[in-house]
Amino acid sequence: MKSITVMVPKPGTVVLAEQELGAPGPGEVLIEACCSALSPGTERHIILGRAWPLPLAIGYSLVGRVAAVGVGVRRFKEGDAVAAVARHASHVIVDERAVVPMADGIDPEQAAFFNLAHTALYGVRQAGLQLGEAVAVIGQGIVGLLAARIAQIAGGLPVIAIDIDEHRLEFSRKLGIHEVVNGKDDARLPSLLAKLPGGGVPVVIEATGVRAPLMQALEIVSVRGRIVMLGMTHGDETVRFHEHLTMKGAALIGAYVNSKPWSLAQTDMGITDWPPALARGARPYTGPGLWTSSEDVRVILDLIRYGTLDLRPLITHRFTADQVVRAYQHVLDQDPALIGGVIRWK
Description:
About 25% of the residues lie in helices and about 30% in strands. It is of the alpha/beta class. It folds into 2 domains: about 160 residues, Medium-chain alcohol dehydrogenases, catalytic domain (Quinone Oxidoreductase, Chain A, domain 1); about 140 residues, Rossmann fold (3-Layer(aba) Sandwich). The strands form 5 sheets. Strands 3, 5, 6, 7, 8, 19 and 20 form a 7-stranded mixed sheet that branches. Strand 12, helix 7 and strand 13 form a beta-alpha-beta unit. The longest helix has 14 residues. The chain is globular and about 60 Å long.
């Protein structure tokens, strides 16, 4: 079988390449893709050669249907709707452990953003958000927008979206975020903070990856509040942790999504004989209390399925396979109009 794949052969260049796929091997799943989502920040770094050696296939958030399964695969069968950590391609072979089942009827365009959305969800989980706590999300790119909406779903009151780009803030308004603030407005944010108990924000999520907003987060966090670093923060500016973090008794929390396990294996103790003995093999852990990445992906898909999380307002660009090169020009140019981009493979 031939697959059309998005490749970066050298820095700054994106091409479509045809690859021959064999049958899925043991523990593998062949997926016919429906949609995959662009990740403008991460993929731009890859295309520019700043992340991994090139040439390289890119993409890591794809949805489609199972076309075939390899020996030993029991969780999936042909025809199942799935989400997978997989490259942008018309067909992919993936380790079944990187695949999450998806209910029929979920909008595939929205579901394609599962990887960015569960990244945002991890930031909210790391904050330990309690119902009724105010939340400020600094940065309203796609991940910041998702974090703000998920913080609302999780009980943040109010959720404050902050950015200096008015175009991005329009999407915050479309999502119905409680308070939308342009960071260039020197009066608006202080006015909101003055109305909060204690004059600060209990939870601040920094989602820009720029040093100056991190310093702003330190300034607005409340006494004993929490700052979650969701973005990969770059820059050489000195951060005054002592005054704004230590003296407040506040916490600075990392939220790199791959710092938690993708999945956990569960092996049960059987009591079919005596003494009890471990059962053969293992199965993915899906119980409460331990939120792995694969479980958070399931949560995101269910939020979309039941209409609690509507990502349609964030989808600004749709591309067919033959428009991929043009799609990535938007990424390379850092087109401010690009918020959520989807490649439709069929």
